[in-house]
Write a structure and sequence with these properties.
Biased composition (Pro residues): 292-303
Region (Disordered): 291-362, 403-424
Protein name: Arrestin domain containing 1
Structural class: mainly beta
Helix content: under 10%
InterPro entries: Arrestin-like_C, Arrestin-like_N, Arrestin_C-like, Arrestin_domain-protein, Ig_E-set
Distance between the termini: 55 Å
Order of helices and strands: EEEEEEEEEEEEEEEEEEEEEEEH
Domain Arrestin C-terminal-like: 3-137, 162-286
Number of domains: 2
Radius of gyration: 25 Å
CATH architecture of the largest domain: Sandwich
CATH class of the largest domain: Mainly Beta
Largest sheet: 6 strands, mixed
Length: 424
């Protein structure tokens, strides 16, 4: 066996999820089979956002740093055979954004340790990834408890001569939700024609905007429900429920390169008509008071990260997008929640320093879910399919929908919280 038998970072109590402004403590553990001369033992704690113009590309085009702290744990000397522990502690910035990982970029935090050996000897390095969760309080968003309403009228021709129209009005009980909460949807469809309409479909959409050399948009279908069409000259009220699955929060305060938005789109297949409602998803439910954090080194309070939408940037310049659409089910079909640990290419948590029974890990953060069709904000090219390995179940199929980019939050609701607008 080599001289260095074990070299790893152990965070206190096996924690991997922290809140902004918290201290991060741990120790560098070294196990040697023979004495090891060294020039220095160092540990650093870094946080950054990295964005690429290609899906799942390891070479980053744009990077935004949040902090970079380093400590010297030991000066020049020699470590004897046996086990050695070097404790450390860093204070995480209060402005650090929530961790995020997507096909075109990620917000990543890690601790890295290095044993700097004498000349002509091999240096030793190890690292440990951790995650930051900055809970979003939905009550901080103006008018969040008010109903969400949008309406459209579609005029069309049938049988070459006759004309008719369909009025589609959709509403939700709230503008914001938390993971596991039920989104109550109502759609009023007035068929003012002699032709039956096609089925009505409601889709919960996730839109992630990445700022590389230009904005890249990644639109995914998260969950869908479908209802029957409306007979000629009839008016129907359609009510459904969508259970909000585990998702990343849509606002990432402190990050200027990645923005996450959520929309509920209600559509008719024939005639083609749709309305779009912006939806906020956060960590603290509407009209609920956040719990005070418990003191001590245990896991931080809070559920898996949710999502909060902000206004999409430069909507007027967006290209037409296609996204996976569920076409043959009548009930809500949310995708299975994905966690960092289950994601393709996601880093493994660092080894736990302590009994899992005595120090249970908090719920893992969530990353984006669903199949991806990114598109660009400028240029004449059409949508560019992604090479991402994240795909939807086989029963999902492609459908030309939506035909235009979702409207801005200002257009839909009349006002927006400046702190949640990308680029603000």
């Amino acid at each position: 066996m080599g001289r260095v038998q074990l070299f790893q970072i152990r965070l206190s109590h096996g924690r991997v999820v922290y809140s902004p402004g918290e201290p991060l403590a741990g120790a560098v553990h070294v196990c040697l089979g023979a004495p090891l001369p060294f020039r220095a033992i160092r540990v650093s704690c870094t946080g950054a956002c990295r964005v690429s113009s290609k899906a799942n590309d390891a070479s980053w085009m744009v990077e935004e740093g949040y902090f970079n702290s380093a400590l010297s744990l030991a000066d020049k000397g020699s470590l004897p055979t046996g086990e050695h522990n070097f404790p450390f502690q860093f204070l995480l910035p209060a402005t650090a954004p929530t961790s995020f990982e997507g096909p075109f970029g990620k917000i990543v935090y890690q601790v890295r340790a290095t044993i700097d050996t004498p000349r002509f000897s091999k240096d030793h390095q190890c690292s440990c990834v951790f995650y930051i969760l900055s809970p979003l309080n939905l009550n901080s968003i103006p008018d969040i408890e008010q109903p969400n309403v949008a309406s459209t009228t579609k005029k069309f021709s049938y049988k070459l001569v006759k004309t008719g129209s369909v009025v589609l009005t959709a509403s939700t009980d709230l503008r914001g939700y938390v993971v596991g909460q039920v989104l109550r949807l109502q759609a009023d469809i007035e068929n003012q024609s002699g032709k039956d309409t096609g089925p009505v479909v409601a889709s919960l959409l996730q839109k992630v905007s990445y700022k590389a050399k230009r904005w890249i948009y990644d639109v995914r279908t998260i969950a869908e429900v479908e209802g029957a069409g409306v007979k000629a000259w009839r008016r129907t009220q359609w009510q459904e429920q969508i259970l909000v699955p585990a998702l990343p929060q849509s606002a990432l305060p402190g990050c200027t390169l990645i923005h996450v938005d959520y929309y509920l789109q209600v559509s008719l297949k024939a005639p083609e008509a749709s309305v779009t409602l912006p939806v906020f998803i956060g960590n603290i439910a509407v009209n609920q008071v956040p719990l005070s954090p418990q003191p001590g080194p245990g896991p931080p309070p809070g559920a898996p990260s949710s999502v909060v939408p902000s206004a999409p940037p430069q909507e007027e310049a967006e290209a037409v997008a296609r996204h996976p659409h569920f076409t043959d089910k009548r009930h809500s079909q949310p995708l299975p929640p994905a966690t960092f640990g289950a994601a393709s290419g996601a880093p493994e948590p660092c080894p736990q320093g302590g009994s899992p029974a005595s120090h249970p890990l908090p719920p893992a953060l969530c990353i984006s879910t669903g199949a991806t069709v990114p598109y660009f904000a400028d240029g004449s090219g059409g949508p560019v399919p992604t090479t991402s390995t994240s795909v939807l179940p086989p029963e999902y199929s492609l459908w030309g929908h939506p035909y235009e980019a979702p409207p801005s939050y200002e257009q839909s609701c009349g006002s927006a919280d400046p702190g949640l607008i990308p680029g603000s």
